[in-house]
Amino acid sequence: MNCKVHVLLLRPADEPPPKRFDERLVISHIPLLDWEVIEDSVEKLKELLKDVEWLVYTSFRGVRATSKLAGLIREHVAKGKLRLAAVGPRTAEEVKSVIGVEPDLVPREYRGAVLAEELLDAGAHRVLFARSEKGLPEPVEVLRQHGVIVYDVPVYRMVVLERMVEAAVRAAPLYDYVVFTSPSIVEAFTSKWRGDTLRAVAIGPTTAARLRKAGIEPLLVPREYTLEALLREILSASCG
């Protein structure tokens, strides 16, 4: 049986689709978002480094946005004054590549709430988040509820590519599956989506929750919150 599954992948412009996967998957990619550094906030983060025990990254963009502080961060780490946490393996790899040190903590599940729980288990008292302007509030709230001093610094912002969103809305009904890779992607897409039928899948539970809030029930959420795992589950559901 010749099984072909047509997938529309909605991601930011700096995250192209996988170049090679299973030949049964025909993947199209429409970038909906770009991003930019918030320079004033990066300077604020620089001043706060001396006052915290943990620097937390919740995306690889946060790491890139603070790249000019890499030397200072390494200095604090080398002196034993600072530990680093990354929300998942992609972010952890970026920390190693850009900052030049191994993260001290990568949670067992790649979610902000689990990251907060493991920071509590590690005895965190003063934590600095370097993240998106629209970062999910949950990890910060969990830590503050337990008495942790948290500095939440937005070091970058996402920028909606309006014409690409319009193109995605027109194209989406033609695909077997439409892959949403973050809550921000859901927000951008649903700002213009007025259709009834959409075979949506979500990369993880926070993205799935944002889809449901917009009135779209995701068909799939992978057990492992990665694009590769999601594509494997799409293949399994479609081709057996």
TrEMBL record:
Organism name: Pyrolobus fumarii (strain DSM 11204 / 1A)
Single GO term (MF): uroporphyrinogen-III synthase activity
Keyword match Ribosomal protein: no
KW Acetylation (keyword) present: no
InterPro entries (UniProt xref): 4pyrrol_syn_uPrphyn_synt_sf, 4pyrrol_synth_uPrphyn_synth, UROS/Hem4
Catalysed conversion reaction: hydroxymethylbilane = uroporphyrinogen III + H2O
Enzyme Commission designation: 4.2.1.75
Residue stretches making up the Tetrapyrrole biosynthesis uroporphyrinogen III synthase domain: 29-231
Protein name stated in the entry: Uroporphyrinogen-III synthase
SUPFAM superfamilies registered for this protein in UniProt: HemD-like
Described purpose of this protein according to its UniProt entry: Catalyzes cyclization of the linear tetrapyrrole, hydroxymethylbilane, to the macrocyclic uroporphyrinogen III.
Functional pathway: Porphyrin-containing compound metabolism; protoporphyrin-IX biosynthesis; coproporphyrinogen-III from 5-aminolevulinate: step 3/4
Family as reported in the entry's similarity comment: Belongs to the uroporphyrinogen-III synthase family.
Keywords (A to Z) from UniProt: Lyase, Porphyrin biosynthesis
Biological processes, Gene Ontology terms: protoporphyrinogen IX biosynthetic process; uroporphyrinogen III biosynthetic process
